Amino acid sequence: MTTRRKRARRRAWAASVAGALIAAGTTWAVQLPAGAAPAAAGCGVDYTVSSVWQGGFGADVKITNFGDALSSWSLKWTFAPGQTVTQAWNADVTLNSSQVTAANVSYNGSIPSGGSASFGFNGAFSGSGTPTAPSSFSLNGVTCTGGTATTPPTTT
Predict the structure, then answer these.
(1) From the CA atom positions of the chain, what is the Rg in Å?
(2) Do strands 137-139 and 116-124 pair parallel, antiparallel, or not at all (unpaired)?
(3) Mean pLDDT across the chain, nearest whole number?
(4) Which residue in 72, 73, 59 sits closest to 144, CA to CA?
């Protein structure tokens, strides 16, 4: 039996035991065997508005993977109303209303555990002042909660 199958069987056994204990009203701490934990996930995003000009801005984004190694990635966030992406590099960026999705390109899809990937884009915004940084990001469907930072823009 392969190691992967053994792990799957151990997880299934642990889940069924835990379910039976819960149904019986008993609380127990069930510890899975070493190596049987589900895939870890976690990420941090450094979003930097690198420059601002009338109606436009440049941004740099660095994704740090705190979970298991990734073979591809998709980062999502929501822009404030009136903001859009006009050009991107090192990512395929799509915009659906204010929802933005940046996905890896052929040469930067792998991010090892503890590793990072970066991309940048130019954007446009309406109104006066400066563009608003996104308040949250998700990487492959997991909300990034670790090491998220936004850097205020510099006006040029």
Answers:
(1) 21
(2) unpaired
(3) 78
(4) 73
User: Which residue reads 């130019």 in tokens?
Assistant: 122
Q: Letter for the amino acid at 29?
A: A
Locate the DSSP E strands across 98-154.
99-103, 116-124, 137-139, 142-143, 149-151
User: What DSSP element (H or E) covers 141?
Assistant: none
Give the span between the Cα atoms of 99 and 80, in whole angstroms: 9
Structure tokens that stand for 64 in this block? 């740090």
Measured distance CA(93)–CA(100) in Å, rounded: 7
Domains along the sequence of the chain with CATH: 1-38 (no CATH), 43-151 (2.60.40.290)
- Cα distances (angstroms) measured from residue 67 to each of 11, 64, 88, 144: 19, 9, 26, 11
Say if CB 43 and CB 67 are below 8 A apart.
Answer: yes
pLDDT exceeds 60 at position 34? no
pTM (two decimals) = 0.69
Buried b (16+ CB within 10 A) or exposed e, 117-133: bebbbbbebeeeeebbb
